[in-house]
Known about the structure:
Layout (H helix, E strand, L loop, with lengths): L3 E7 L3 H9 L6 E4 L8 H4 L4 E2 L9 H11 L6 H20 L7 E2 L2 E2 L1 E2 L9 E2 L5 H14 L4 E4 L2 E8 L3 E7 L2 E12 L20 H8 L4 E2 L4 E8 L12 H5 L3 E3 L19 H15 L4 E4 L5 H7 L1 H9 L9 E10 L2 E3 L11 E3 L4 E2 L12 H20 L24 H12 E2 L1 E2 L1 H20 L6 H20 L1
Parallel strand pairs: 1-2, 1-11, 2-8, 11-18, 17-19
Antiparallel strand pairs: 3-7, 4-5, 6-7, 9-10, 10-11, 12-17, 13-16, 14-15, 15-16, 20-21
Helix pairs in contact: 1-5, 1-11, 3-4, 4-11, 6-14, 12-13, 12-14, 13-14
Amino acid sequence: MKKEYDVVIVGAGIAGLYGALNLSPGLRVLLVCKEELILSNSALAQGGIAAVIDTENDSADAHFNDTLIAGGFKNNPNAVRILVDQGPKEVRALIEQYGAEFDHENGSLHFTLEGGHSKPRIVHYKDYTGRAVSETLIEAVKKRKNVELLEHAVVCGMAKGKGFSFDILSGDEHFLVSSHYCILATGGIGRVYEYTTNSKIATGDGIALAYQLGAKIKNLHLVQFHPTGFANHLTRETFLISESVRGEGAYLLNCRRERFMHKYDERLELAPRDVVSHAIMEEQKATGSKEFYLDITHKPADFVRERFPMIYSRVLEQGFDMTKEPIPIYPCQHYLMGGIDVDLNGKSSVDRLYAAGECSHTGVHGNNRLASNSLLEALVFSHRAADEINRLAQQEQISPVPAEFPEIQNALPLPAGIRTETRAIMQRAYFITPNQQEIVNGYERVCALKKQLETTPYRIDRDYVEAKSLVTVAYIILKELL
């Protein structure tokens, strides 16, 4: 492995992969992945990618307006305009340059409808679009001679000088890497909650690294709770029942098996995610029950199995046939709208440090992300970050001076329970609506945990990195909510 690169990308979801593909072939790139390449939040995305391809029946202005409405008009309109205007070009590039497959109907792309959208504009591949696109991009990246892939590796530390230095742990070995530029594409923070749709690697590592470098972190408290996670509280990681199931006509039912969304929003089941999640909480108060269901049994069974093969299979494994009976659902943590604050080219407040995808805060989502805008944002803004790095890299470069990451003598093992305690604190303090007293109590305890992790000579390994990341994320969220 080379020790010096032009660009280090941390994270191998769609933002990291697409960023690597759009960097100049003349740049030496290292792509660091915490586990295998296919394990990412991107690969878990079911619904699709929202983009106005059908300009006869839809418009970028309509997509722009839907995004603002879903975000409570707290979005950055300049970022939203870039998203909706550039997005269709990126989707076409996926198809034409990389061979990505999407579902067709009568020879044309099939567009589905999801909550908050005024038109069917979501391109998809069955109900596992994220995995299909990720696999396509992984194969493309593997063919790039200038990109080196490092799987099963954790960035334990970063330092900033003329460039960046990275302490990377691969297996049992720590080694030092330096680069001129860095793109953080580490995904979400779901593991800071007890129940999440996120993958097990979503511990907010990139946000914690950027925070430690002094980067501006913005609106980390803007957490999206998806209303239709499969209701299985036996495991920390739940799977999502995609927005597109409601887009295809599924009904939300309360414990009495009655529809209830008409009491809360005229858009019914197709209201934005935050509205539906809050409606479920209100209905829970009214009925005194946490039992909720999603019902698509009124649709033909063959249609359901063909349109949602992955969801159908996974629900069946849990003992439910969604063609014959309602699916038990309940809200859970799903997405992060805040993150490392970046400009319209993905640049953070730290020179040469970029962020893309869910770990970044572009401002496109406002207070609530519109369904299927996440993969779109990853594509659009990782491409823009790569373009800016390509432009800057043409200028004269000064070799970065590697920093030192001193080895800790007589390092102590991390005590068990820190991550579990942090999750419990966050679940009590901020699940859909903030609990102010729990926020105050939780913040005090998280501050103590943060100090403990920063001052105790613990062994620097993956457990320590993830515990510190989760505590840092919890600290920032609770501090913003105080």
